[in-house]
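[C-ALPHA CELLS]
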Amino acid sequence: MIASKNAQKPSKSPQEVPPVTDEEYYKTNVKFKTEHVKILEEVFSVNRYLSAERVNQLAKDFYCEPTKLRNWFSHRRQAVKADPQTPPDEILTKIYESDNSFMEYGNKELLEKTKWSEEKVNDIFIGNWFTQRRLQNGPLKETVIEPVLESLFLKQQFLGKQEENELEKTTGISWFIMHPWFKKKRQEVIRQHLGGSIANLPTEMMMLKAHYRQSDTFDLALRRKIAAEMDFHDEDVTDFFSELTTAYQEFMEEQENEEDVEEMADAQDPEQEEMQDSQDHVESDIPYSRNEVADNQQGQDEAEEMEYDEENGALPDWEYLNAHYSQNAPNVLELEVQNVPEFVAEETVSSPSTSNDSVTEEGSQEADQDVEILGILPQPIVVAPRIKVEDQGPAPPERIVYELQDRLLEFQNEEHAPGPIPLRRVKTTMAEIIKIDMCGLLRGTHDTGFVCKEQLQEYKVYDPVTREPLVLPFNGSADLSSWSRCQVQEFLGQILLSNTAQSVVSKYLEKFELLTFEAKTVQFFEELNSLFSHRNQGIKWSEYEKISREVGKVRRVQLKRN
C-alpha cells in the first residue's frame, strides 16, 4: 500500500520562468541588455552621431526612452576621446592619405567627404584631428615656417575666409600656426609704425585703420559689417581694433616716461654744475676766490627766489607752453626765442637786466606780481627767468586760473597727434580771458578746461584777498572740432564712467571724428545754451550740476535710440 502510494505521487520538476520583455526590463534596469549593447556598438562604429529619426527607431526596437539612447552615445563618444589608443576613423585616415593638407575647419568639404552630421564635424574640429596627425608624422620646423609666412604677410595681413583652404594647401602650414603668427606680426608692425621705423602701414591694415578712424562706436553689428565687406573673420577685426588702441596707449605712456626722465635730468644738471663750480673755486688758490665764492652764493640765493611753489611744481619755458597762442601780441618785447602769450599783453615785460644797476623797491614789488603758472602734475623744479615790469602802473587785477594744452613739441602742429593731451593751469586775470572772446555765444577757445568739483578741492585755488575759492572758467565751445582729446575725455567723464570715457577718447584719432560726435549731441548743446548765461563764462558747481542733469537726460535718450 505504501509503495503504491509513493508511486502515485508526481515528481516535482523546476518551474520555468517566463522571459522578461524589453519593455519591463528597462522599467527597472538602467543598463542596456548585452544583445542591445552589441547592436549599439555596431551602430556607433558606423556613425557616432545619430539623427532624430534613427534615435526614435532604436527606442521603439528596444522599448526604451530616446534620452537613454542619447546618453549612451554621448558617454561612448567621451570614452573614445579620453582613450589615446583609440585608432582614428578610417574615413579621416583616407582623407588624410589623399590630401595631408586638408583642414578640419573646412566644414562644408568635410561634410561632403564624410556624409556626417554637423555635430560630428564640429567634434572633429575641436579635436584638431588633422593638425595632430600632421604633427605626429612630421612636425614643421620654425626655420621653414618663418620665411614662408613673412613673404605671405607682405601680400596679405589677414587670413580671409576664402583663402584658408588654399593657403594651407599651398604652404603646408596649419591654420592653427598661421593665425597666431599673423596676429603677433600685426602687433609688431603697429608699434614699428608708431615708433617711426615704418612710414605707412600695409594695405589691409591701412584700410581697417580707416574704418577705425571713421567710426566712433564699434558694436558687434558694425564689426560684422566691416568683416563681411573685407571678407575677414569677425575676431580678426576686433583684435586689430584692440591692438591699435593698446598700441596708442602704450606709446603715449612711453613718451610720458621719457619726458619725465629728461625733465629730472635737466633739473639735476644745474645743481651738479653749481656744485662742481663751487668745488673748483674752493680748491683754487686765486687771490679773488673769496669774492667769487660770495658771487656764487648770491647767484644761488637769486636762483632760489626764481623757483616756483614746490607743491605745484614749475612750468617749462614760454615757447613750449604757449605754442597755440599768437606770437604777434602788441607791446611785447621779444625775450630771445621766447614769446609771451596774448593774455598778458597789457603787462609789458622785458628780459631781466644783466647790468649792475640797483633795483628799486617798487620795481621788486612789480616783479613779484608776475604771471604765476601752476602745473597739474607734480614735476621737478625748473629754474625759470624772472620777468620784470618796465612801466610803472596800477597793480594788476586779481588773477584766476586758466587752462591750456600741454602738447609734446613734436606734436605741436600735427592734427592727429595721439591723445589724450594733458592741460596746464595758468593764473591770469578775468579781463584777459574776456579779451580772447571767452564771453558771448559759447564760442570759447579750445584751451579752456571743465569745471569739476574734485579740481576745486584738489588744486585749492583761492582768491589772494578774500581766501574764497575761485571759479574755474568753463569751456562752453559748441565747436567740438576745436576740442582737445583731454577735454573730450573730461567732458565724457561727467556723464560716463572714467574707464568708458577713456576708451571712447582713445578712438578719436582725427579731428573730423569729433564732428561725428557733435551731431549726436545737438540736443545737449541746445540745453547748454539755454542754461548758460553767466558773465565771463564763470560757472559755479551748483549751476554745473544743473547742466550735468541735462546731459544725463540727453545721454539716456541716445542710449535708447542706439
Notes: Residues 412-422+432-562 form one domain. The longest helix spans residues 234-283. The beta strands are 349-350, 373-374, 388-389, 399-405, 423-429.
